[in-house]
Amino acid sequence: MSAPYHSLPGKRLRLFVGESEMWQGKPLAQVVIEQARLHHIRGATVVRGIEGFGPEHHLSTERLPDVAVNLPLIIDLVDTNERIEAILPILDRMLQRGTLTVSPVEIIEGTEQTA
Amino acid sequence: MSLLRQGKAQILTLYLGESDQWHGTSLYVALLQVFREAGCAGATVTRAVAGYGAGGRLHEATGWHWSSDAPVIIQVVDQPERLRRLLPQVQGMIQGGLLTLQEVEVLKYTHARRSGVSSRLPVRQIMETSVATVTLDTPATMVVELLLQAPFRVMPVVDAFNHFCGIVSTGDLITAGLLPLRRGVVRTAQELDTSTREAIATILPGKDAPVRTAQEIMNRQIHTLRPDQSIREAARMLIDFQVRNIPVVDANGILRGLLTRVDLLQAIRTSPLMSPEARSATHPLSSTRPLPGLAPQQQPITIYLTTEVAVVEEETPFAETVDLLLTSPLKRVIVVDAERHVRGIISDVDVLARMQEAGRPSFLTTLAHFTHNTSARLPTGALRVVHGQARVAADVMNRQVVTIASTATVQEAIDVMLTTRRKLLPVVDAEQCLLGTVGRTDVLRVLLESGQER
Question: Which of A16, A66, B86, B171 is the most buried (most CB within 10 A)?
């Protein structure tokens, strides 16, 4: 039997950036996570890619040490529409090179205890 | 444009094994190469720690990645059409691996550096790749029909092997006597009242016109771009040749796409989400020289101001207004009051749509004669004076005129042009008085300047 669940409409922001992107002297990913915490964003996750290319088409890969200096990072932030919209202008200013996408998600708040 | 516009896009996600092979190299490396060569906006490969996929065998990272068979995930963000086009090739390569497509909204896609626009971006990355073409033997009347509906003003002509042969533009059709007037006017006329529709139909080529083909009417003397040329070189060509688009042709003569003015403007416009604080960092200057230390797109728009503008007052007689409209290089007349406050703007389409019905057929004839240079004198003589509403400039002007403040930046002007779809913006000072205009080609100069910095 499937338990009924509470859910909220939300959004997942996904940033595709290079590891060497900086914002005011700090790694961009670190600043994004800090800002997400400050704004009480429900979830933030950074994943490092092993290879990729982005807007400027410079390939980076861990296979060759020479071009492994700027591996891709994917940063996911998930929260309600309002919270995501609140943090967008800040992310927008910090993102100088990369892609920022958003897709709708349902945030599961927990299942109901059924007897 | 090949790279992402803000708005709807898709994420293609591929699940495969890290040790999967394709013709002697890693499959994921080969796939990434495919996406890169196709000019995709971006792709990222991540390695998972365990999993299983369509292949049915368990993938597990061994902790020593040179021999790892962990699952890898490739995410490609791009416009839906391009991804769809690549799917058959990709499916052939991953041999049954798992593929998903998901809609996403792209909020930002930027290749800009802090210093300005990356003017070295290759044309391949921003050109339009889904371009309607005709072949050499397409009947000219069909070219006219297609061109009236097409998203661009030009129709590339290709042979059976997609080799680029030439271009048919609306200008070529007018020269060949196949189109009486520019496209916008014909389109507007077709949507107006019956007599106007009939009037335009009588000057459009009928079915009994001699059969000609695209080959006979096309222009072969066309400047083309190679996919690897920079957007800076593209801007130079658009400005020098005063054209709105350039075909992109590879070394083998194959047509690869079309680069339009809008593609370049989109590339300059790096962010639709500029925060209010960032937006307010404009400079209240009416300086006409670039400001040192500012990125080109942050310069005030006044550096590209054109001051030679055809101006009339609201009470200027209709015939005089039309004369000025037809002879003005911008094909626009701006209507101002005694203090030079902008009241409206007039194009040939505005006149046609706003004048009284009875006068429309003769206005079309006048325009056609003027376009074909068959009228030795100014057109007003041919305009019958009909008692009705259109008596003065104010009667035919478009009051929904979008102006831009002289303190605005180049970037803001581009934003306004793209969001309001205006090609020409009157520039006004703090008192809303007209200073001049900026057009789409004017702002492309920003790409030339960003190149000088490096």
Answer: A16
